[in-house]
Design brief:
It contains 3 helices and 10 strands, in the order E-H-E-H-E-E-E-E-H-E-E-E-E. It is an alpha+beta fold. It has a single domain, classed as Sandwich (Jelly Rolls). It has a 6-stranded antiparallel sheet. The chain has a 4-stranded antiparallel sheet with strand order 4-9-6-7, with no helix packed on it. The longest helix has 18 residues. The radius of gyration is 17 Å and the shape is globular.
């Protein structure tokens, strides 16, 4: 018997049309009103050329996104058999013009336990989301095995949602589609009651 322990839960699904359409409108309104103020996400800590509102003065907020997360995150937690008091700890818009990418990173910090993305506009070949196996360094000492992968790839598509542990290293491949890829990313933090 072989037991496969230490699996990592990555959730993917499709956002319902009515909520997605409201979210898409919120995102495009935000971009229209703030794009001139949103800097390239290219700071001394990053090499990527994706435009992001993560450091923008006017932060992105969307009630539609909160409602989407309630539905999908509850499904995720139910499937994991986990009970947690959580809140959205940040949400931001990403604009990846052709040639843009996002290097490997994670979302550890601020009590973040999960992170995620919803693709608002994503054409074919607009940049796959790649999750790195956290045991990747150990895989080199094992014989080649088709059941243990060094990475997992998710292809972006309009209305797609993906939720994952905040510590999971991930990156986004170069956008080769010829069109902008627009997404909303977010972190979900555990509410810790300090009075308990």
């Amino acid at each position: 018997m072989i037991d496969h322990h230490f699996s990592l839960p990555v959730y993917s699904s499709v956002v319902e049309d009515n909520l997605f359409n409201v979210l898409k409108n919120d995102v495009y309104s935000y971009i229209q009103n703030n794009e001139a103020k949103i800097n390239n996400f290219n700071t001394s800590d990053w090499d990527c050329n994706t435009i992001s509102s993560i450091t923008a003065e006017e932060q992105f907020k969307s009630e539609a996104l909160e409602n989407i997360l309630k539905t999908h995150f509850n499904s995720y937690l139910t499937d994991l058999n986990v009970t947690a008091h959580v809140t959205t700890s940040g949400m931001w818009v990403n604009i990846a013009d052709p040639g843009s990418y996002q290097e490997q990173h994670n979302h550890i910090g601020n009590n973040n336990i999960f992170s995620g993305v919803i693709w608002i506009d994503a054409k074919e070949d607009s940049g796959d989301l790649i999750f790195r196996n956290p045991y990747n360094n150990l895989l080199n000492i094992l014989p080649k095995n088709t059941k243990i992968h060094s990475r997992v790839i998710y292809r972006p598509y309009e209305k797609g949602i993906c939720l994952f542990p905040a510590f999971l290293e991930h990156s986004v491949r170069v956008n080769k589609s010829g069109s902008r890829r627009i997404s909303v990313s977010f972190n979900i933090a555990q509410i810790i009651n300090k009075n308990v």
